[in-house]
Design brief:
This protein is an alpha/beta fold and 324 residues long. The protein has one domain: Aldolase class I (TIM Barrel, Alpha-Beta Barrel), CATH 3.20.20. 38% of the residues lie in helices and 18% in strands. It has 11 helices and 12 strands. Strands 1, 2, 3, 4, 5, 8, 9, 10, 11 and 12 form a 10-stranded mixed beta sheet that branches. It has a two-stranded antiparallel ribbon with strand order 6-7. A hairpin with a 7-residue loop joins strand 2 and strand 3. The mean pLDDT is 97. It binds ligand PBG. Ligand PBG binds next to helix 6.
Length: 324
């Protein structure tokens, strides 16, 4: 047997290629901020910006014309407080963005996904309500659920096609489903970040979203990076609570977890190529150490091959151009 026979020409290689990446598989994250005409560079993520709503609409139009599948929206509010009020306000930044995007023709081609979390909106930077206990502070699980449900509902009302809770509180999918159904938003799907690991690779995002915890870390709610079986239990629970799709995160250091999920469940699976994965590639590109175009596409192909149906990636627009 000679394996090289099928590698001889590009047309032969194309014929036997097992995995593909299409622009429509990609979801492009946007960081919305107050103001007009604002396009503020995020220093640790070359090519990523905080965008005012008008600028975000322009980005959306570009993304749509490139065939990108959807947008994932994060918000930087005017002001933060203890509870994260800005997350669910009727006139919150993501809600404003959703309304503007819905009014744009681009939204006919893009799935608008809203990230449901509180860390960008709380003064302490944690993903839930903080309470004091005998052992010090902690993020209180059950009192946070109501705030997350309120957030998801306000996003659905503002035009989100999908809500995506990323907080990692127990029971949040059920709480969000119940709130959506009770308000008549039965048709809004939940994409739950089912297995989200406490990762160093979120570092640059916290600059982009201004969401660094002001004390402690997220290890009491996000998962320990060593645990594959636990990730499967998280997925089972989120599906039992009513998640329509699951998101795995980060991607590259956890490709085995994506593969295991693929073999276990039938629901659509997304993977999030997170900020640190993006930034380390960008750093290598800047140094001339890696070929930008090839490494970008290879990083995405690996995630698809591991079993993800779609990928949240800051490379979405660039990759879509390369695939055109
Ligand atoms: C909010 C949230 C985070 C990311 C997505 N949603 C940050 C975190 O959990 O600290 C990270 C995304 C990225 O790094 O690109 N909880």
């Amino acid at each position: 047997m000679r394996m090289r026979r099928l590698r001889r020409t590009e047309s032969l290689r194309a014929l036997v290629r097992e995995t593909s990446v299409e622009p429509g598989d990609l979801i492009y994250p946007l960081f919305l901020c107050p103001g007009e005409g604002v396009r503020r560079a995020v220093s640790s993520m070359p090519g990523v910006f905080n965008l005012s709503v008008d600028e975000a609409v322009r980005e959306a139009e570009q993304a749509a014309s490139l065939g990108v599948g959807g947008l994932l929206l994060f918000g930087l509010p005017d002001a933060k407080d203890d509870e994260g009020t800005g997350a669910w306000e009727d006139n919150g930044i993501v809600q404003q963005g959703l309304r503007a995007l819905k009014a744009s023709p681009a939204s006919k081609k893009l799935v608008l996904v809203a990230d449901v979390c509180l860390c960008e909106y709380t003064s302490h930077g944690h993903c839930g309500r903080i309470v004091e206990t005998a052992d010090g502070w902690t993020v209180a699980n059950d009192p946070t659920l109501e705030l997350l449900a309120r957030t998801a509902l306000s996003q659905a009302k503002a035009g989100a096609d999908v809500v995506a809770p990323s907080d990692m509180m127990d029971g949040r999918v059920a709480a969000i489903r119940r709130a959506l159904d009770a308000a008549g938003s039965n048709d809004t799907p939940i994409l739950s970040y089912a297995s989200k690991f406490a990762s160093a690779f979120y570092g640059p995002f916290r600059e982009a979203a201004d969401s660094t915890p002001q004390f402690g870390d997220r290890k009491s709610y996000q998962m320990d990076g060593a645990n594959l079986r636990e990730a499967m239990r998280e997925i089972d629970l989120d599906l039992a609570e009513g998640a329509d799709m699951i998101l795995m995160k980060p991607a590259m250091p956890y490709l085995d977890v994506i593969r295991a999920a693929r073999e276990r469940v039938g629901v659509p699976i997304g993977a999030y190529q997170v900020s640190g994965e993006y930034s380390m590639l960008q750093a290598a590109f800047e140094k001339g150490w890696l070929d930008r175009d090839r490494a970008t596409l290879e990083s995405l192909l690996g995630i698809r091959r591991a079993g993800a149906d779609f990928i949240v990636t800051y490379f979405a627009k660039e990759a879509a151009k390369l695939l055109a």
